């Protein structure tokens, strides 16, 4: 039993010595008489330009009347709407193209931006700019509403016999400037 007490007493002395040594450390983490060392770390963040489209109108339709046939066209302002967003200080561009083999012919569809940023564009199978906008750098990332009108020309080509529904898929691409 005495031997156990001596071991416990020795352990207490050893623990006390460790606490004393630990207490001698300086506020900067060094022990007495040594010098501190430091290092720097460079943190780098790469932010690529992005542009995205949100909430695009999924499907739109026209009902042609006899007055439309007499005029040989049907148009609708603000038919297609979506929101675009970018972090590019130069703004963004929206391009549009038609399907490769539509039943509603590309050359008969005219798309126009309702804000006047781009004049009317006859649809083709190669993407062409329909809307563009610059940005104020203090507004980044910026979001804009894009509203496009659609006009279908040459209605005399489309009859109600046979296929009475004509379609074309418009593909919009949003690019940072």
Q: What's this model, at a glance?
A:
The protein is an alpha+beta fold and 177 residues long. The chain has helices spanning 2-23, 66-71; strands spanning 51-54, 73-86, 92-97, 109-113, 121-122, 128-133, 142-153, 171-176. The model is unreliable at 1-22 (pLDDT under 50).
Write a concise keyword list for the protein shown above.
177 residues, alpha+beta, 5-stranded antiparallel sheet, 3-stranded antiparallel sheet, 2 helices, 8 strands, disordered N terminus
Structural commentary:
The protein is α+β, with helices and mostly antiparallel strands. 16% of the residues lie in helices and 31% in strands. It has helices spanning 2-23, 66-71, and strands at residues 51-54, 73-86, 92-97, 109-113, 121-122, 128-133, 142-153, 171-176. It has a 5-stranded antiparallel beta sheet. Strands 6-3-8 form a 3-stranded antiparallel beta sheet, with no helix packed on it. Strand 4 and strand 5 form a beta hairpin. The radius of gyration is 36 Å and the shape is rod-shaped. It starts with a helix and ends with a strand. The model is unreliable at 1-22 (pLDDT under 50).
Average pLDDT number: 76
Q: Major β-sheet, in short? A: 5 strands, antiparallel
- Percentage of residues in DSSP E strands: 25-35%
What is the helix fraction of residues, given as a range? Answer: 10-25%
Give the low-confidence spans.
Answer: 1-22
Write the layout of secondary structure elements.
Blueprint: H1 2-23, E1 51-54, H2 66-71, E2 73-86, E3 92-97, E4 109-113, E5 121-122, E6 128-133, E7 142-153, E8 171-176
Antiparallel strand pairs: 1-2, 2-7, 3-6, 3-8, 4-5, 4-7
């Amino acid at each position: 039993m005495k031997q156990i007490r001596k071991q416990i007493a020795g352990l207490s002395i050893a623990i006390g010595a460790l606490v004393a040594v630990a207490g001698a450390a300086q506020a900067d983490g060094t022990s007495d008489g040594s010098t501190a060392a430091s290092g720097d770390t460079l943190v780098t963040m790469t932010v690529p330009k992005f542009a995205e489209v949100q909430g695009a109108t999924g499907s739109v339709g026209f009902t042609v009347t006899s007055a439309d046939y007499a005029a040989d066209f049907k148009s609708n302002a603000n038919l297609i709407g979506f929101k675009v967003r970018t972090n590019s200080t130069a703004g963004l561009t929206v391009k549009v193209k038609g399907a490769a083999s539509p039943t509603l012919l590309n050359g008969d569809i005219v798309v126009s931006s309702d804000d006047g940023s781009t004049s009317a564009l006859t649809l083709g199978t190669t993407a062409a700019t329909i809307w563009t906008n610059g940005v104020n750098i203090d507004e980044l990332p910026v979001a804009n509403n894009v509203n496009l009108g659609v006009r279908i020309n040459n209605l005399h080509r489309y009859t109600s016999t046979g296929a009475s529904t004509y379609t074309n898929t418009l593909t919009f691409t949003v690019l940072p400037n």
